[in-house]
Design a protein that fits this description.
15 strands, about 10% helix, rod-shaped, mainly beta, 7-stranded antiparallel beta sheet, about 240 residues, two-stranded antiparallel ribbon, disordered N terminus
Length: about 240
C-alpha cells in the first residue's frame, strides 16, 4: 500500500502498465430468451470486462481540506505539543472486485447487423458500433465513482463500446427455413467492488514541514455496479 501511494504522489498517472483482471461469461447457443421467449439460434459473448486490479485514485475531500492551523511556536510548550498534522488528500484503492451475477439484466440497445439467406454468407458492408455505461448503485463522491469504473471496466469514464468490423462474415446453414438474422446488443453483469481508503496528512513542527503521514482506514465502502458487455445473437425465419 505504501509503495502504491508513493507512486501516486510522484505522478497523477502511473507510468507502469496496470494489472488487469478479466471478467466475463461463457458463450451460449440455441436457447430461449427469458424476457421475449424468442428462440435464439446462436448467442455469444463478444468480449469481457477488463478491470484494473491495482486501480487507485487520488481524491481531496473538500469538507476535510483546510488551511494549516495556527502552529504553536511558544518556547514554553513541549516539542510534542508543537507538532500538527494537516489533512492533504485521500487515496481510494481497489480492495477486491468480483462478479456476483452474470447476465443479470435483459438485453439493451439491440441493433440489426445483417440478414443472410439460407445456405449463403453475407459480409457487413460498414462497421456497426454499440455503446453503454457502467451503472453504479448508490451515490458516491467522484473519487469512489472513478475507482469503481477503473476496477470494473478499466477506464475512468465508465464508458464501453464495441465495433463490428465491416469485414465480418455471417452465414446461414441449409437447415434454416428462409434466412438467419443477426443482431447485436448489450447485457450487464453485476459486480461488487471493495473500496479501501488511505488518508494522507502533512506533519509540521511549528511551521516547518516534516513529512507525510499515512492512515489506512481499511474498507470504507462496498459498491455494487452493473458492467455492460457486448452480445451477438441470431434468429431464424
Amino acid at each position: 500500500m505504501k509503495k502504491l501511494i508513493s507512486a501516486l504522489l510522484a505522478a497523477a498517472v502511473p507510468a507502469v502498465s496496470p494489472a488487469t483482471a478479466v471478467y466475463g461469461a461463457a458463450i451460449e447457443s440455441e436457447y430461449t430468451d427469458a424476457a421475449s421467449r424468442i428462440r435464439f439460434s446462436t448467442f455469444g459473448i463478444l468480449s469481457e470486462h477488463r478491470g484494473i486490479t491495482d486501480a487507485a485514485v487520488r481524491y481531496t475531500d473538500p469538507k476535510r481540506k483546510q488551511k494549516s492551523p495556527a502552529l504553536q511556536s511558544k518556547a514554553a510548550l513541549a516539542p510534542a505539543e508543537q507538532i500538527a498534522e494537516v489533512y492533504d488528500h485521500s487515496v481510494y484503492s481497489n480492495g477486491g472486485t468480483s462478479m456476483t451475477s452474470l447476465t443479470s439484466s435483459p438485453r439493451e440497445n439491440d441493433i440489426f447487423l445483417v440478414s443472410t439467406a439460407r445456405g449463403s454468407s453475407h459480409t457487413l458492408t460498414e462497421p456497426r458500433r454499440i455503446s453503454a455505461s457502467l451503472q453504479i448503485s448508490g451515490v458516491y463522491n467522484s473519487g469512489i465513482v472513478k475507482l469503481v469504473r477503473l476496477a470494473v471496466i478499466g477506464n475512468a469514464s465508465g464508458e464501453f463500446s464495441y465495433v463490428w468490423s465491416h469485414s465480418k462474415v455471417y452465414t446461414a446453414p441449409e437447415t434454416v427455413p428462409f434466412h438467419r438474422d443477426y443482431y447485436g446488443a448489450v447485457q450487464y453483469d453485476t459486480s461488487s467492488t471493495q473500496v479501501r481508503q488511505t488518508d494522507i496528512y502533512k506533519q509540521y513542527y511549528k511551521s516547518i514541514y516534516i513529512r507525510e503521514v499515512h492512515y489506512d482506514r481499511g474498507i470504507v465502502e462496498t459498491v455494487s455496479s452493473k458492467a455492460p458487455k457486448p452480445v451477438e445473437y441470431s434468429i431464424d425465419f
